[in-house]
Amino acid sequence: MSQKATELSKTLTVGQAVGLAICIVVGSGLLVLPGLAYQQVGGAAIYAWVIDALLVIPLLVIFAYLGANYPGAGGIAGFVQEAFSRPMGAATEVLLLGTFSLGIPSIAVTGGNYFAMAIGGGEGVSLIASLGLLIFAGMVNYLGAKVSGNVQQVLSYSLTGLLLFTALLALWFGDRTIGTGVAPIQDWMLSVPALGMVFFSYTGWEMLSFTTEEYKNPKRDFPIAVGISFVTIILVYLMIALAVQYTLPHGDSRLGTAPIAALLMSVFGPLSGKFVAVVGVVIIAANLIGATWAASRLVFASAREGLLPGFLSRVDKKTRSPQMALLTVILVFSAVIALHFSGAVSLGILLQVAGQNFFILYGLSVIAYLKLVRRPVFKAFGLFTLAVVMLTMGTFGWWLFYPLALMLFGSWMMRIRRRRNVQNQTVHLTE
To answer: Where does the UniProt annotation place the signal sequence (predicted)?
Structure first.
């Protein structure tokens, strides 16, 4: 196979990069987690959003540095491999695969729930809609990075403005005495159990790293995309979280499925709720386009590095898209969606475990950063950030064994493949 057959084209511009970042980060986390966090810790939930926002700032500074200086389709796994070794890179790839396989299907399920609310359907409608949204995202990406980038740029800018408008309407016209509101500042510790779950809403920038090979100028464009998208997203998150906590009762059953739709329904009636449900479906569709883009690049890069079968690293001659890798991730995510609707795993568990795993992946980026930088001030910044990550990880509990098992399996797989390659080369030489 020629080198050209496994190379991605460099088509992403600054505007597309910012739109892609917003589409990847804003999605099911925003549409369902304000309600789930409010259910779990009441009025203290807003502090989880603020704490996670503060936690993610130094991580994004490090992340922007790595993406700008070490661009590649491998993303975080590429950073870790650059800093340490191929087995460590493979361990990170498997952790990413195990994380995407939980997080991205949960995005589709949330979209399916919003679609069911929009048309008044039940669980069967939600299942079909979840799969339909996932397939739609795959089809857009199948057409190539240029088409996908343009679609996401338009969607991200218009939907971000619409979400801010929704929050302002609810806070202005809604009854702010119905909800719990904001707990006193001295009760911020009550938000700790929701930190891991809420952090899922701050994930996505790690997915953005898988697209750096396709930027026209990654050293300039990647930090810009991270910075602008962060400021925009934080504003949207805090406004939505406040609107939910002030205008919805703590016991509202809709908090766990479609809180933003419930938000406007409480103010303007059922018709407005259906409108927001439709908007939620569009947001999820945009989010899934970016997420499946990133996941397919991970599979592509992992195959190119020898961990996954080689046919997954082929790039279509016309679209320059890794279409076999894309089809593979769509099939895997569809299977996880089916498991969820069979009752095998809840949406809350999918979001919680994926959220904590993404946080761990940020931690691995910090460790890679510490290994790659040389200046003492950068080292000190990295050590401070790593200490914050380790302290936060202490709140995740027994679920930490899942990412640990994934990493051990990935490293073992890579060593086995290397050993087989050496044996095969030895056999060929003796012949």
So the answer is: none
